[in-house]
Amino acid sequence: MEERLQKALARAGVAARRKSEELIKQGRVTVNGRVVSELGTKIDPESDEVRVDGERVRLDGVPEQTFALYKPRGVVSTTSDELGRRTVLDLLPAARTMRLFPVGRLDAETEGLILLTNNGRLANRLTHPRYEHEKEYRVKVFGVPSDENLERLRKGVPLEEGKTLPARISIERAEDENTWLRVILREGKKRQIRRMFEIIGHPVRRLIRVRMGPIELGALKPGESRELTAEEYDDLAAGRRSPARMTKRTRKPGWAAPKVRTDRTGRPRRRPPRRTTGNVPEGGGSRRSGQPQAKKRKHRTEK
Description:
four-stranded antiparallel beta sheet; alpha+beta; 17 strands
């Protein structure tokens, strides 16, 4: 069964869908020995030979795997680094043989939860802005932010690339000259939390991501990893959001659906048709509906 080349590469764990498209455009992908640079090219994963930078890609029977990793400070969340720094793949050696890649990014000084997967569709669900998956952080800042400044951050503050979305922020505890807070975002601008707190004059001293969507960091320690459970994987694959997320489809605690009036038999009562007043022109319309009305002609009588 044929499928698009970029989709097959993402499914095989070479890279996410968009990155796979860039590899194709750059002419780094060959199919049966021929360079393919056009998007939309279809292949047969069972019979065609696909190579990226000369290395053959296994497309058939690739198991989908996803791991949760506690990224320590000083480790970069990329597959390679020009400066020779340790990457998240160095913490999970099996990742290179399984062709795993990180989902999203954490800057070098930020620690906490990051996912590694070979499932491009899953990675897209977690990183694409339209899904608005929550990301939860524990933040240690210098000083004690005032309620007024925290309210500014909750409503959104202007950055170079645009105003931030409303955030959920709460204070955990004070510690010497610092304060620990919980911050929940629905977006991921570059170094967003650090820039937000710099605006209100409270620089970040430590930043830990503890949740991505429904997946939590849990008891993992820096450098440790675990494979997702079947339930966690199903939640991600189905695109489920965390229970705490408030959307138009969810309601505040205590909300109850309006009662439905029933008749004697227990069936819902039907609302009677709305009555209209005034003259109704041909083709419908009424005073209540706001449609134009036919003017009533006055007939003169001859004397």
